[in-house]
Structure formats: structure tokens, C-alpha cells
Automatic annotation (TrEMBL):
Pfam families cross-referenced by the UniProt entry: ADH_N (PF08240), ADH_zinc_N (PF00107)
Official protein name in the record: S-(hydroxymethyl)glutathione dehydrogenase
Domain Alcohol dehydrogenase-like N-terminal, first and last residues per copy: 35-162
Record family assignment: Belongs to the zinc-containing alcohol dehydrogenase family. Class-III subfamily.
NCBIfam families listed in its UniProt record: adh_III_F_hyde
EC number(s) stated in the UniProt entry for this protein: 1.1.1.284
Database matches in PANTHER family: ALCOHOL DEHYDROGENASE (PTHR43880), ALCOHOL DEHYDROGENASE CLASS-3 (PTHR43880:SF12)
GO CC, one annotated term: cytosol
Needed cofactors: Zn(2+)
Classification lineage: Eukaryota, Fungi, Dikarya, Ascomycota, Pezizomycotina
Record GO biological process: formaldehyde catabolic process
Keyword Chaperone: no
Amino acid sequence: MSDTVGKTITCKAAIAWAPNEPLSIEDVQVLPPRAHEVRIKVLHTGVCHTDQYTLSGKDPEGAFPSILGHEGAGIVESIGDGVTSVKPGDYVIALYTAECKECKFCRSGKTNLCGKVRETQGKGVMPDGTSRFRARGKDILHFMGTSTFSQYTVLADVSCVAVTDRIGTDKSCLLGCGITTGYGAAVVSAKVEEGSTIAVFGAGCVGLSIIMGAKKNKAGRIIAVDLNDNKEGWARKFGATDFVNPLKIPRNVLLQEYLVNMTDGGCDYTFDCTGNVSVMRAALEACHKGWGESIVIGVAAAGQEITTRPFQLVTGRVWRGCAFGGVKGRTQLPGLVDDYLRGELKVDEFITHRVSMDRLNEAFDVMKQGDCIRCVVDMS
């Protein structure tokens, strides 16, 4: 890769020119990294519902034209001045949740949120306020600080982490969002205790990862809640002990009431992975009085709000949220890779579909199918 250092690279990228339009796979110019930036060759990327959410136009931070994708892994092609955390040739995972280790958030020890690049990341530009992508003579915006739907992308150095090459990038890319988000929600954020009763609303990639994390922490009862009966087999494969389809409970019984009754007073922990605000309420109210905790993970559409009777909180239930499972990307993600290599963390089992880059639009259609957990895109 040495012959491309310091030069603009022309490669293929899937550009979202406008909401609700198919991605356009075409040439894009990727500028060299500037100070504290890293340019990587993206080898594999997952396709996540967050990408679809932004493409739908419902994301209040969604901006166009942009290059989507935030669940990617590849090899460092070159680095800008001042970069010491990675070097050319390193295998890395892109991090949409940065970790600078220096800001107020990182130093607090209370959160994995980082303030270093958040403001510019939300605007679709690099920390200096400019873009590294150009196509059709126009600047193209970045997405979630990662833009992994491009064969080459530029990240802030705090937005990637080097990992061993003993894990293939078709596996490590999935640790950049879905699996880590769910697994971390159970193990890092909620810290599910041995013997706990939990309910997981939505048995997709994130939900199954929560189930995996809860099983790892020896939860006593793990209830998967999903409208699709085909998800029951998947949920039990990852450790669920029960499965509830809300469409099949008595019509005169609310879902939260049904769960409270089947768990002798409610769950110790519940997790919403749906982004549906009505489900978020049900998840909170399915918690046990006095100590039940409900974790919101799913992203709701712009303008939507969550509601419940204050009495639900006065009587001891806790409503909280987490991003990226509460996992610190640069500090903790290499440990998850080690867990995978030791056979203690499932990753391969999440991959149900694979497509080449020229079929990336098909991956969005596949994602909506009931038998898809994760579709991995080969970006080569």
C-alpha cells in the first residue's frame, strides 16, 4: 500500500445521494488522512438497521449525500501526523463510538460515550470540519464517523481499534456494532447477575447478543419476545429459556401484565431492541417492583417520546439506555476478540447471509427478511 500513501485514492463506494433512494455504487475519491486521522481499506462490513433508519429519512441527524455503513473492519493503509495508536498494516475495527481516553466523559469512568469527535461526527464531517470524500465533483459526507460502505475510508484515530489478524474481518466487523451492543448491554451496562430473570424484546442480532451475554452471566430465566415465531429457534440457540409471541397471548391481557404474571412479579432486567416506544413502555412495566431495570437500546424515529405512569418509577423501577453496550471500543473491544478466539463468544453463528459489494442494496432487502440475523458484505 506504500504507493498510495499521501495520495488521493479512487475506489468504489455506495453513496446515499438522497433519502429513500437506492445506494449508488460508483467511483469516489478518498483524500489522504490529515493529522490524527487514519485511512483504512475496508474489507468487510455488516449492514445494520441503523443504516436503513438513516436511509429512510427518519434520522434527525441524517444528511445527504453521504456514505453509510458503521459496522466495518479492514487494514490501515496510511496514517496522518500524530497517530500513535495504529500503524499501516494493522487490522482494525471501525468505532462509531469513539474513545479518546482524555475527555470529560472518558475520564469519568461512568460511561463509554466520548466527547472528542461527537459534534463533528454528527454533522458528517471530520474533526477539522471537512470531508475526505468526493464524487461527481462534490463533497460527500461521512456517516457515524466510519462510512464503511466505501472500499477506503478515513476515520479519526480515536474511532478505530487494532485487533489481532487471527480473527477474519468478516467476523470482526460484526463486533463494530450489533454483537457488541447487545452483549455489552447485558454484561457491561446491566451487569446481569446469576439467577436473574430477563426479557429481551426483539430477537434480531442485538437481541440474540443480549441473550448470549445473559447466558454468559448465568441468568436463571431468559425470555425472548418477538412477533416472528421463526425467531424462537434462534433465541433458544443463543440461550433463551422461554419465547413469547405477543400476538399469541390472550387479547385482553397487556404484554407487560402477561410477563409479570409468568415471572412471579416481573423481570429483574428487560431490554428493548425494537425502537418502538410502545414496546419500551411494556419493557419497563414488565420489570419487578422495587428493583427491576429496563435498558433502552433501540432507536426510535425522530420526535417520538416514551411515556409511563410516574408511579412505575416511584415504586423502584429504573429506566435507562446504553450505546454500543456500554463498551469502550479501544479499551475493551480487543478483549471481546480474545473471547471469540477462545470460543467463549459466538460471532460466526450470527452470519446468515453474504453478498458482494455490487449487491449491497440487496443486503437491505435481505435484512428485512425473517431469516436474516446479519448480512456481511465483501467490499473487495
